[in-house]
């Protein structure tokens, strides 16, 4: 990023872009920490078909913690820009203040309940053969594209593709909608001869559940929130609903209009929440309210950013509605 371009890019986006380039993930966190969720799952770290976990899921607790800091600062007299500038500057000096804050505030999620572990368990039950690259999983760099940093995105795309090919990857099962879209649609535009097949987890599940009995542990009304990238970019709108409707005990209830291609955005994604934290929180609350009026006991979605935003919105509404990833719901239903 040249000096002139950098002056036009908000500090929050600069921070993320620098992390992708220097640490190969959006938070600049340890790759070992990111891969910790898979400990004990005995997944092969080399395979022609790999499970691509993505930054959003692997660092979800850290992201929630960091967003809490940003939103808290944004409401103060200081604002959020100055802390993000300081974080970027101090990182150059070898001091990661945001990382220190994450370590202090993140309590540590139960990895056994994480969407990633749920997804792996589902794929295993369905007989899908796959591996996981662990610390060698590259960052797709999607946020560079969404921020308009096309030169940086193209360079990262080349690096990502060559790393995947060097590890023998031929097929990818993506979890994060944004990563999956980048790997399926954006990287081929930046990499000549791109030849890796990419499918989303939802597609793989739907292809393999025919004839299987899926039963949720309890009777529950659920509503579904369409992540923007999953619905609008990957075109996967009917597929998640077909999965939910195949689960006994689940009653799907939805808003009359704000669903599918007309689903309201939760206010997260593309770095928007790091640049406009207050507006992002307002959008999260509005979307949570739209979904709450359906009378659902559970909001189901399939994006780490959406999960974080919806939880934030429900907290503002003082609602006890549960938010679950679709992978968690399927894992509970498949037994």
Taking pLDDT < 50 over at least 5 consecutive residues as the criterion, the unreliable ranges are 76-80, 86-93, 104-109
CATH architecture designation of the largest domain: 3-Layer(aba) Sandwich
Helix content: 40-55%
Structural class: alpha/beta
How many domains, in number, for the residues?
Answer: 2
What is the average of the pLDDT values? 87
Question: Main sheet?
Answer: 4 strands, parallel
Using the coordinates above, name the CATH class of the largest domain.
Alpha Beta
How many strand elements? 7
Give the number of helices. Answer: 18
Q: Write down the overall geometry.
A: globular
CATH-assigned fold name of the largest domain = Rossmann fold
Helix-strand string: HHHEHHHHHHHEHEHEHHEHHEHEH
Proportion of beta-strand residues: 5-15%
Radius of gyration: 19 Å
Q: Strands of the biggest beta sheet: in what spatial order?
A: 5-4-6-7
* Oligomeric organization of the protein chains: single chain
**End-to-end gap:** 49 Å
3D architecture notes:
With 335 residues, this protein is of the alpha/beta class. The protein has two domains: 3-63 and 109-205, Rossmann fold, CATH 3.40.50; 211-334, 3-Layer(aba) Sandwich (Rossmann fold), CATH 3.40.50.11810. The protein contains 18 helices and seven strands. The strands form two sheets. Strands 5-4-6-7 form a four-stranded parallel sheet, with helices on both faces. It has a three-stranded parallel sheet with strand order 1-2-3. Helix 12 (201-208) crosses helix 14 (238-245). The longest helix is centred in the middle third of the chain and has 17 residues, at 150-166.
